[in-house]
Structures are given as structure tokens and as C-alpha cells.
Design brief:
mainly alpha; about 0% strand; disordered N terminus
């Protein structure tokens, strides 16, 4: 049966331009994957103590009980952690920016960092410094803080967790939790010592098995975020428009918040609250992909680890024979990207 109504066809030139842009963005993804492979290779090959590339390769293919094999194995674990944390932070930042319609959004807006910090400090005060360095010390606080932000943001007239309410609730919860952190760390020097090393963020010196602990959370968060790419695009048009398109704005916001929280919490728990990756990567990628989350999220997942691993490699070589913690280096590397994006006026969603 025909309805007699024919869908309008896009002009031929417009369709050709759309196909060209799709091919260009797909080619960009291949380039981003190449950069990620390069960053992984440098992370394994370069360290604070120089090891010839041939010995690194041999120790990787035929590990033994020697010094070089131990060094390479530690770099492999460090690289895997950087892959997971970088992808998690960047995708979490991209989702939060779309969710709050704030181009300067990052996981800290939803209270993730403050919750993880408070959790680490409380666990350290109660159970000692070693327990405070565990993934499980930071993960519950990060999740609970974000839940509190969402519950507070959903209260009041209307009962909807709008972007403005979420940001305000995140600021309030974060301020309270950071006040708690300061009160405990100022009163206990042992807690302060553990906290000051954790809060800077580092891929080195993490407990054995950290990669395996956070891997399920990162994979689940990435899958959920990628599935929400189209709903996030609709949500960016406004709640009324999204509802008119058949989308439940509240459910999408809840699921997107859950994905961003799981990703950020897993990353913060694993490597500490590393600054700028969740902000600078999606903000920079947006200048290439635009606001289309179908491209923005995969780009962020590939380029987040590039920034984190690149910063880790830089931190190993600039202070030889010592190292700079990756959280310090990302601040120096991320700031120029942010300044450039702001000066070019491409920070809108």
C-alpha cells in the first residue's frame, strides 16, 4: 500500500558533501588508531633508565628472570593501565559535556573526584596507608558521591535533573567532601602522606592486579556510552525536542550519568584524579568531529590514551633518572590545547 507521500530527497551536492565528511572522519579514526599504537610502543620502549630497543624487544618476546624482563613487564602493565584510564577519562568527559551541555565539563562536575578523594582519606584513616592505595578505597566514594549529586539534582520543583541542577548539586557535594578531606588530612600526617601521592595521579607504583580490577568497569562504561551516542545527540537539541523525537530525556540522562560515573570512578580509583584528560581531549576532538557523539566518543576513546601515555613517557625522560608523575605532566600538556580551543572560539556544543 502506498501513502502517496514521498520523502524529500537531499540535494545531490549536500549528499556528496555528507559522504565526503564521513570518509574524512573515518580516515581520521584510522590516524587516531595509528597514534595510539605509536604511544603504546613508546610507553614500552622508553623509560627513565635507558634500555636498548633490541633488548626490550627480546625481553618482550622471550621473558626471563632478568632485570630487562622485569622492566619491560612493568612497562607493559603501566601501558595497559594508561590505555584503560585514558579511554575512560576522555569518554567520561565527552559524555558529561554532552549531558550537562557544558563544553568545559569534566568528571569533577558530578562529584566523582571529590567522592573518590574523600573515600581514600576515610579508608586510610580507618585502615592505614596501604588500604588507602587500593582501588576499592576510591571506587565506592566516587559512585556514592555521583548518586548523591543526581538525587539532589532531581529534587525540588519539577523533579528533573536538568544540566544546571546537576552542576549546582555537584559543586555543593564536592565542596562538602573536599572540606571533609581537608579536615582529616590536616589532623593526621600519615593520612596526608598517602593522600598527597594519590591525588596527583600516577600510572606507576599501582598495586598488582589493578588492571584486572578496573577492566570490567571500563569496558561496561565504554559500551554503554557508545550505545547512548544517538540519544545524546537528540538530548543536545533540548528536552522538548528529544521528547518529540520519542526519547525519554530522564532515562537517557540517568544512563549517561551512570556510564560517565562508572568510567570516571574506575579511572580515578586506578590512577588517581588525573587532570585535563577528561576536559582537553573531548574539547579538542569536538573541533574536528563537531557535536555528533557517534564520532566524538570513538575519537575520545582512542585519543585519551594517547595523551595519557604520551604524558607518562614525557614524565619519564624529562627528569631522568627520576620521573614526574603523569598528573603533573598532563596539566602542562593539556593546558595549551584548552587555551587554543578557547581562543579559536570552538568550545560550544
Amino acid at each position: 500500500m502506498t501513502t502517496g507521500v514521498t520523502a524529500p530527497r537531499a540535494p545531490r551536492s549536500t549528499a556528496r558533501g555528507s559522504r565526503s565528511r564521513t570518509w574524512a572522519l573515518a580516515a581520521g579514526l584510522v590516524v587516531a588508531a595509528g597514534l595510539l599504537l605509536l604511544a603504546c610502543g613508546l610507553s614500552v620502549a622508553v623509560g627513565s633508565k635507558p634500555v636498548p630497543l633490541g633488548e626490550v624487544w627480546s625481553a618482550w618476546l622471550r621473558p626471563d628472570d632478568g632485570y630487562t624482563s622485569a622492566v619491560v613487564q612493568s612497562r607493559l602493565s603501566r601501558t595497559a593501565l594508561g590505555l584503560l584510564a585514558g579511554a575512560a577519562l576522555a569518554v567520561s568527559g565527552a559524555v558529561i559535556q554532552g549531558l550537562t551541555r557544558n563544553p568545559l565539563g569534566d568528571p569533577g562536575l558530578l562529584g566523582v573526584n571529590a567522592g573518590a578523594s574523600a573515600s581514600v582519606v576515610v579508608v586510610t584513616a580507618l585502615a592505614g596507608g596501604t588500604a588507602g592505595r587500593s582501588v576499592w578505597a576510591a571506587l565506592p566514594g566516587a559512585v556514592l558521591a555521583t548518586v548523591a549529586v543526581y538525587v539532589i539534582g532531581s529534587g525540588g520543583p519539577g523533579g528533573r535533573a536538568t544540566p544546571v541542577r546537576l552542576v549546582l548539586a555537584g559543586s555543593a557535594v564536592g565542596a562538602v567532601l573536599l572540606a571533609l578531606v581537608q579536615a582529616i588530612t590536616l589532623a593526621d600526617t600519615d593520612v596526608f602522606t598517602t593522600y598527597r601521592f594519590w591525588v596527583i595521579g600516577s600510572l606507576a607504583g599501582r598495586p598488582d592486579g589493578t588492571v584486572g580490577l578496573v577492566l570490567p568497569y571500563v569496558v561496561a562504561g565504554l559500551v554503554l556510552a557508545l550505545l547512548l551516542a544517538r540519544p545524546l545527540n537528540a538530548l543536545a537539541l533540548g528536552d522538548e525536542t528529544a521528547t518529540a523525537l520519542g526519547l525519554s530525556a530522564g532515562r537517557t540522562r540517568l544512563l549517561a550519568g551512570a556510564a560517565a560515573t562508572v568510567l570516571a570512578a574506575a579511572s580515578v580509583a586506578a590512577v588517581g584524579p588525573v587532570a585535563f584528560v577528561g576536559l582537553a581531549v573531548p574539547l579538542t576532538v569536538r573541533t574536528v568531529t563537531g557535536a555528533d557523539h557517534r564520532w566524538l566518543l570513538p575519537y575520545a576513546a582512542l585519543l585519551g590514551p594517547v595523551l595519557l601515555l604520551g604524558a607518562d613517557v614525557v614524565g619519564r625522560v624529562v627528569a631522568r633518572p627520576g620521573e614526574l608523575m603523569v598528573g603533573v605532566v598532563t596539566a602542562f600538556l593539556g593546558a595549551p590545547f584548552l587555551v587554543a580551543a578557547v581562543r579559536r572560539g570552538r568550545v560550544g556544543l
